[in-house]
Structure formats: C-alpha cells, structure tokens
Amino acid sequence: MRNLILLILSFGLFIGIAVPSWADVEARVFISKQRMVVFVDGTRRFEWRVSTGRRGYETPRGTYQPIWLSAMHFSKKYDNAPMPHSIFFKDGYAIHATNDIGRLGRAASHGCVRLSPSHARQLFSLVRAHGLRESRILVTN
C-alpha cells in the first residue's frame, strides 16, 4: 500500500497536478519543462518559466527545505553576479531573479533556478512570510 501511495504522489509530481503538500509554500521545479509551479497552503497559485542548469552545470534534483534568504546576494563564484531575491536550498544553489529574462524557459544557468524579477520577488516574499521551516523546494525532471 505504501508503494502505491508513493507511486501516485510521484506521478502527480511528474505531471504537475495538485498533490498534498506538507508545507505552507511549495515550489516544484520541472527541469524538462523549465517551469516552476508554486503551491500555497496546498492550492496551486502560480506557474512560471524558469532557467535551470545548462549543459555541464546540473541543477541538483531532490526535495529541499530552504536554508537561508538574501534579498540581494552577489555570487562569489561567478564574478560577483547579482542574485536578487535568493532562496538558498543546497550549498551555493538558489532560486533567484535574473535580468536575462529572454532565456527563461530553457536551461541557461550555472545550476541555480532563475526566475523573472517579479516572480522571484513574489516567491521570496511568500517564503519569508511563511518561514523557511514551512517551505519546500522540489526539483525533478
């Protein structure tokens, strides 16, 4: 029975339908679609184009709890590149805003998940309001 439940939940994640969430805010990143679906209190609220890691720069897959937030971060690894509204979820990987909005919808980053500035600001505000412990990030193919 447990395996059946896991199969149903996995299938729901794959096709992007509402699946029960154990977090107030849940951002689901679908790498193959270059899309993010955001649920708030279990209700699907937003779907946005993203850019994830391009060839040679993988975006880590898995389920994460945000580690920390930075309203204005600069990458120490990539020439002080600006990373506005960063939500760090694993090591140096974050969801953050980009000004390169023309590349959203295709893999273009060094592994982070890029959003348009307004969408990154919205997600950042939601995670800050609900709290790191009540937020989840799922990254899947």
Describe the 3D structure:
This protein has 141 residues and is an alpha+beta fold. Helix content is 20%, strand content 37%. It has helices spanning 2-15, 117-130; strands at residues 25-30, 35-40, 43-49, 62-64, 68-74, 82-90, 93-97, 113-115, 135-140. The strands form two sheets. It has a five-stranded mixed β-sheet, covered by helices on one side. A four-stranded mixed β-sheet has the order 5-6-7-8, with helices on one face. Strand 6 and strand 7 (93-97) form a beta hairpin.
Compute the number of strand runs.
9
Gap from first CA to last CA: 25 Å
Largest sheet: 5 strands, mixed
- How many helices does DSSP assign? 2
Silhouette: globular
Proportion of residues in β-strands: 35-45%
Quote the average pLDDT.
Answer: 90
How do the strands of the widest beta sheet line up side by side?
3-2-1-9-4
Uncertain stretches: none
What series of H and E elements makes up the topology?
A: HEEEEEEEEHE
Attribute tags:
20% helix; five-stranded mixed β-sheet; alpha+beta; 2 helices; globular; four-stranded mixed β-sheet; 141 residues; single chain; 9 strands
A few lines on this structure:
The protein contains two helices and nine strands; from the N terminus they run H-E-E-E-E-E-E-E-E-H-E.
In terms of topology, how is this protein built?
Elements (H helix, E strand, L loop, with lengths): L1 H14 L9 E6 L4 E6 L2 E7 L12 E3 L3 E7 L7 E9 L2 E5 L15 E3 L1 H14 L4 E6 L1
Parallel strand pairs: 1-9, 7-8
Antiparallel strand pairs: 1-2, 2-3, 4-9, 5-6, 6-7
